[in-house]
């Protein structure tokens, strides 16, 4: 299908909306009625047609609006994109990977023409047609990482791999769930994960690191992470906490269905071939509570997950104060029936809501 | 989540190739060059990466890792250089005797366990014998980016100095070659003392040389992060032993001249691996029960792991004793 790109905003009037198509393909993150941190990694080699897992870099109806939002953030705060000097090659790796994947996966939207080191990149949705010399920074308007991530949805952390460890030495981070590239730059895997509760004790980070150090070229991996966001804000950064943190107090029983969003990150892991660095794209998908509950299985399950989530996690994810109000709202969509296993909406097979008890 | 059917495969992704050149370099070493049958470009790789070559040797599959030594900026070929080991387990002999131009073979995608530290202001390479191969690619990569490097290369004799002449004539100021039979040796202590801050040292060669470089560098106050090494262990023969694999629900015999990993593969068990040399950690396997002695030979597990007998790396390690049960 050809994608209709939305005209919408992730700030001020918050005109962001999900179409029915986007709701049905939303990456709902709970495969059962409860949630706990785990080493939930799997191969990133496609998925059902039309799902967000199908392509290596998913492009959806929010593409242009997300790129406009990124441009605004970068204009206000250039430190959202950083690359330590030794990471330039990894930046070119990232550019090559994304251009190759997008032109192969979306030939009607993106084209890459290579003639040795002379490359021509065509990004039709953004109206870009640019010729440059691969590995020659003077032929791009900015560094290779910034160039390509201004044209690709999701945040990007680029990890150098040395001494059996990953180091956050480059990235473009404008749609993050309350963490900061400028703060984390140069840190290692355990250091930047220090604020996360419980997972260290469960040994999750030790095992996750081992897995990541062995992610191989040609065999990318993925996992999902999630949190909650009031209003469809992409930029929930610590830098701007004073602007968005306070919005959490504007939730009311009347507006919660429209204002409260489940925020899901599709995180992928790619070994970069020339630099041996690891690319970590973090793609953010937002969905309003009122849209989630339009899928009966998801409404039932989200209620149970939010209800039973350990306090430590609800606190870390920043919604412990609003949890009672969320439960009042979500409880209306949980009739106590069992849910089918797995993440898919199962609209044809799951029964409609039955509150007539 | 499970969004897609997962078919986890052992080892890295594979590439079908055609042998495009077989170039004897001296009495012991031959270079093999590969192209892709469909003429496509090879995946880019980073200097220091290796590939695992799959050999079909009379119904037996041999899998040997070799450093990629071609220029990483040339996507049209991959090349390896193989030293014939007459006492070895047969992989290098197979390459030397049986592999001919035009043969179809299978390689894995590159895997890098010996990468350049790109922060390095200077890179000092220490090669012993066939250990020169990863440095061929590193030199090519650094030359592209104007990197600062020098090479110290110890070989047995002029006649066995694989690539020594070529390197000396290309880079006369950066390459230093030492011949054992002329009693020349790398002056490691002076070399280490004379380096500017931010220098990284890389060593590839026999185990004795690697240990010598690590020890000497540590004695001279070098941080361990600045000293890099790669050693592929070849599995060593040993007494045959029996293993019970409880997940697969079979009992298998490991022969004298095969590794535990190879025995599992021979019996149709899809066991994970990448390097087959005790370095990557991919083949790590839990021990369910053991009555006997482990012969741990890997670089992956730490001393505590080795002592407690709860884990084994089947690519290089063995077992002597009555019972061994593995969670595989
Ligand atoms: C190299 C890739 C990765 C990067 C760059 C990364 C980065 C981060 C960052 C910046 C945070 C926020 C920490 C904060 O509060 O400041 C975080 C949270 C977290 N990370 Fe990672 N991470 C990576 C891989 C993984 C993997 C493989 C796992 C697997 C289990 C994992 C598990 C988590 C968990 C459980 C949290 C808490 C999230 C939440 O509850 O919202 N991370 N990560
Ligand atoms: S396969 Fe790499 S350690 Fe065994």
Mean pLDDT of chain A: 95
Number of helical elements of chain A: 13
Strand order of the largest sheet of chain A: 1-8-9-10-6-7-2
> What string, H for helix and E for strand, traces the elements of chain B in order?
EEEEEHEEEHEHEHEHEEEHEHEE
Low-confidence stretches of chain A: none
CATH topology of the largest domain in chain B: Rossmann fold
- Characterize the overall form of chain B: globular
On the 0 to 100 scale, the average pLDDT of chain B is: 91
Helix and strand string of chain A, N-terminal first?
Answer: HEHEHEEEHEEHHHEHHEEHHHH
Low-confidence stretches of chain B: 4-8
Reported for the largest beta sheet of chain A, the result is: 7 strands, antiparallel
- Main beta-sheet strand count, sense and barrel state of chain B: 7 strands, antiparallel
Shape of chain A: globular
Structural class by helix and strand composition of chain B = alpha/beta
Q: Look at the helices and sheets of chain A and give the structural class.
A: alpha+beta
Q: Helical content of chain B, roughly? A: 10-25%
Number of helical elements of chain B? 7
What small molecules does this complex bind? protoporphyrin IX containing FE, FE2/S2 (inorganic) cluster
DSSP, total strands of chain A? 10
Return Rg of chain B in Å: 21 Å
Number of domains of chain B: 3
Task: Describe this entry's structure for a reader.
The complex is a heterodimer of chains A (357) and B (328). By secondary structure, chain A is an alpha+beta fold. In chain A, strands 1-8-9-10-6-7-2 form a seven-stranded antiparallel beta sheet. A three-stranded antiparallel beta sheet of chain A has the order 3-4-5, covered by helices on one side. Chain A has helices at residues 20-24, 63-76, 88-105, 144-149, 181-184, 189-192, 204-213, 241-244, 256-259, 289-292, 296-308, 311-316, 323-331, and strands at residues 42-43, 81-83, 110-115, 118-123, 128-133, 155-162, 165-172, 221-230, 260-271, 278-288. In chain A, 28% of the residues lie in helices and 20% in strands. In chain A, helix 11 (296-308) packs antiparallel against helix 13. Chain A has a domain at 38-239 and 265-288. Chain B has 328 residues and is α/β, with parallel strands linked by helices. Chain B has three domains: 14-112, Translation factors (Elongation Factor Tu (Ef-tu), domain 3), CATH 2.40.30.10; 122-230, Nucleotide-binding domain of ferredoxin-NADP reductase (FNR) module (Rossmann fold, 3-Layer(aba) Sandwich), CATH 3.40.50; 241-326, Beta-grasp domain (Ubiquitin-like (UB roll)), CATH 3.10.20.30. Chain B contains seven helices and 17 strands. Chain B has helices at residues 91-98, 133-144, 164-170, 188-193, 207-219, 260-266, 303-308, and strands at residues 14-24, 29-35, 49-57, 60-67, 78-83, 104-108, 111-112, 122-128, 149-155, 175-179, 199-204, 227-230, 241-245, 250-254, 285-295, 311-312, 318-326. In chain B, strands 1, 2, 3, 4, 5, 6 and 7 form a seven-stranded antiparallel beta sheet that branches. In chain B, strands 10-9-8-11-12 form a five-stranded parallel beta sheet, sandwiched between helices. A five-stranded mixed beta sheet of chain B has the order 14-13-17-15-16. Chain B is globular, with a radius of gyration of 21 Å. The relative contact order of chain B is 0.12. The chains are: A alpha+beta (357), B alpha/beta (328). Chain A binds chain B through residues 29, 31, 40, 42-43, 45-48, 51, 53, 84-87, 89, 93, 96, 135, 160-163, 210, 213-214, 216-219, 222-224, 273-276, 342-343, and chain B through 1-4, 6, 8, 12-13, 43-46, 48-49, 72, 109-112, 115, 117-119, 144-145, 224-225, 274, 280-282. Bound molecules: protoporphyrin IX containing FE (HEM) and FE2/S2 (inorganic) cluster. FE2/S2 (inorganic) cluster binds at residues 273-276, 278-283, 298, 300, 313, 315 of chain B.
């Amino acid at each position: 299908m050809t994608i209709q790109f939305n005209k919408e905003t992730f700030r001020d009037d918050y005109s962001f909306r999900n179409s029915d198509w986007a709701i049905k393909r939303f990456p709902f993150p709970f495969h059962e009625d409860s949630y706990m941190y785990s080493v939930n990694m799997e191969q990133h080699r496609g998925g059902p047609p039309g799902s967000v897992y199908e392509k290596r870099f998913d492009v959806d109806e929010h593409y242009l609006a997300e790129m406009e939002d990124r441009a605004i953030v970068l204009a206000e705060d250039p430190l959202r994109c950083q690359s330590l000097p030794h990471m330039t090659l990894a930046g070119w790796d990232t550019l090559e990977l994304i251009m190759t994947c997008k032109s192969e996966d979306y030939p009607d939207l993106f084209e890459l023409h290579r003639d040795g080191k002379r490359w021509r990149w065509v990004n039709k949705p953004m109206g870009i047609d640019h010729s440059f010399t691969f590995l020659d920074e003077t032929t791009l308007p900015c560094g290779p990482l910034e160039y390509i991530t201004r044209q690709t949805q999701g945040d990007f952390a680029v990890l150098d791999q040395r001494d059996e460890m990953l180091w956050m030495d480059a990235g473009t981070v404008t749609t993050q769930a309350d963490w900061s590239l400028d703060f984390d730059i140069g840190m290692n895997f355990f250091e930047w994960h220090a604020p996360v509760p419980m997972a260290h004790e469960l040994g999750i980070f030790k095992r996750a690191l081992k897995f990541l150090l062995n992610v191989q070229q040609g065999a990318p991996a993925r996992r999902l992470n999630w949190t909650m966001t009031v209003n469809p804000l992409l930029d929930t950064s610590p830098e701007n906490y004073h602007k968005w943190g306070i919005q959490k107090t504007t939730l009311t029983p009347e507006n919660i269905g429209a204002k409260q969003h489940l925020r899901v990150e599709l995180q992928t892991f790619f070994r970069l071939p020339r630099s041996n660095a690891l690319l970590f794209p973090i793609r953010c998908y937002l969905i309003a509570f009122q849209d989630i509950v339009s899928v009966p299985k998801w409404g039932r399950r989200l209620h149970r997950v939010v209800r039973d989530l350990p306090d430590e996690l609800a606190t870390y994810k920043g919604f412990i104060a609003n949890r009672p109000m969320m439960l009042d709202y979500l409880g209306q969509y949980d009739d106590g029936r069992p849910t089918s296993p797995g993440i898919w909406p199962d609209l044809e097979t799951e029964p409609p809501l039955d509150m007539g008890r | 989540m499970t969004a897609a059917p997962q078919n986890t495969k052992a080892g890295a992704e594979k590439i079908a190739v055609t042998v495009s050149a077989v170039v004897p370099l001296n009495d012991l070493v031959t270079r093999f060059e590969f192209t892709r049958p469909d003429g496509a470009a090879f995946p880019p790789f980073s200097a220091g990466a290796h590939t695992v070559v799959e050999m079909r040797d009379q119904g037996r599959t041999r899998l040997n890792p070799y450093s990629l030594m071609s220029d990483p900026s040339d996507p049209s070929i991959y090349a390896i250089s193989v030293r014939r080991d007459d006492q070895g387990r047969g992989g290098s002999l197979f390459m030397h005797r049986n592999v001919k131009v035009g043969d179809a073979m299978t390689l894995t995608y590159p895997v890098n366990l010996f990468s350049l530290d790109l922060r390095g202001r200077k890179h000092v390479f220490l090669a012993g014998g066939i250990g020169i191969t990863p440095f061929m690619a590193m030199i090519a990569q650094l030359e592209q980016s104007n990197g600062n490097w020098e090479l110290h290369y110890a070989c047995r004799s002029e006649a066995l100095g694989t690539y020594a002449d070529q390197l000396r004539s290309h880079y006369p100021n950066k390459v230093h070659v030492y011949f054992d039979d002329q009693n020349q040796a790398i002056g490691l202590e002076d070399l280490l003392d004379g380096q500017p801050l931010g220098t990284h040292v890389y060593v590839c060669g026999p185990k004795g040389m690697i240990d010598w470089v690590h020890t000497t560098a540590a004695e001279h106050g070098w941080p361990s992060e600045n000293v890099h090494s790669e050693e592929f262990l070849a599995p060593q023969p040993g007494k045959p032993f029996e293993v019970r694999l409880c997940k697969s629900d079979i009992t298998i015999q490991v022969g004298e001249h095969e590794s535990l990993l190879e025995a599992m593969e021979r019996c149709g068990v899809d066991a994970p691996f990448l390097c087959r040399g005790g370095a990557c950690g991919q083949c790590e396997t839990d021990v369910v029960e053991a009555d006997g002695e482990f012969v741990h030979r890997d670089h992956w597990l730490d001393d505590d792991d080795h002592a407690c007998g709860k884990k084994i790396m089947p690519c290089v390690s063995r077992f002597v004793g009555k019972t061994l049960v593995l969670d595989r």
